[in-house]
Design goal:
Blueprint lengths: L4 E9 L2 E6 L2 E7 L1 H11 L4 E5 L11 H9 L5 E4 L5 H10 L3 E4 L1 H5 L2 H10 L4 E10 L2 E6 L4 E6 H10 L4 E6 L11 H10 L4 E4 L5 H9 L5 E4 L1 H4 L5 H10 L7
């Protein structure tokens, strides 16, 4: 059985790492280069960098900052934010990204997934899906959760896989930043319906929350921000606790 992955997320705005609730009321929590170095040293399996305002501001991800982070860590590094073309993905690969994640641009033009997967391989492209529940239905959103689309979570996830994505990063916008746990039933349904790895994001507040989504939720990895940024649950402590629960993690 593959080891479950623990992935800190750096949400970047104006060059600083920020965190909020439902992507709102953002507060600066530190320098992304220093945080990236710390998480790599602490035993994170991967790192995700999301330039969360790039799409809303109509600009590209800061390639220079990507390079600085990549030069300071020795773990796989996924970058997202404002990627809307094959050229954007190429620039980030050159800057040091091991993978790129696309979200709003893929919802708008799904062929982008095919293009990146065909050129660089499925292992290079992660599709991020931000969704909210509306009248009991999971609706895919764009622009950092600000705009609802006409797409439904499970049908979109299946299409994403068919188009060549190597992984899905699913964030429940209902749970993001709340530390109230993950919607494990939704994750389990998603994992059962797909063959590619699912990274769970949005709602981690305790060891139990992460253990639940990795077991009951069947997720392949857990992504979190607040609990790591505020040192509420250091990565080594989290991994030891998961190991004691019988969850296969890299120590």
């Amino acid at each position: 059985m593959l080891a479950k992955r623990i992935i800190p997320c750096l949400d970047i705005k104006d060059g600083a790492t920020v965190k909020g609730i439902h992507f709102l009321d953002l507060q600066s929590v530190g320098d992304p280069v220093e945080l990236g170095r710390k998480y790599a040293r602490d035993g994170a399996d991967e790192l995700v960098f999301l330039d969360i305002s790039a799409t809303n501001e109509g600009r590209k991800t800061f390639a220079g900052l990507v390079t600085r982070i990549a030069e300071n860590i020795n773990i796989p590094f996924t970058v997202g934010g404002g990627i809307s073309s094959l050229e954007d993905a190429a620039h980030l690969l050159i800057a040091g990204a091991d993978k790129v994640t696309v979200n709003s641009a893929a919802v708008r033009r799904p062929g982008l997934i095919d293009e990146i997967a065909s050129r660089y391989g499925s292992q290079f492209i992660v599709v991020a899906i931000d969704a909210i529940t509306i009248d009991g239905r999971w609706v895919v959103t764009t622009h950092g959760g600000k705009q609802a689309s006409e797409r439904e979570l499970f049908t979109w996830a299946k299409e994403v896989q068919e188009r060549g994505a190597g992984e899905i990063l699913f964030t429940s916008m209902d749970h993001d930043g709340t530390k109230s746990g993950y919607p494990c039933e939704t994750y389990a349904r998603l994992c059962d319906s797909l063959s590619i790895p699912i990274v769970a994001s949005g709602g981690a507040g305790s060891v139990e929350d992460i253990a639940d989504v990795l077991t009951h939720g069947k997720a392949d990895a857990a992504l979190a921000a607040s609990i790591f940024h505020y040192d509420e649950i250091p990565i080594p402590v989290l991994k030891q606790a998961l190991h004691k629960k019988g969850i296969n993690v890299r120590l």
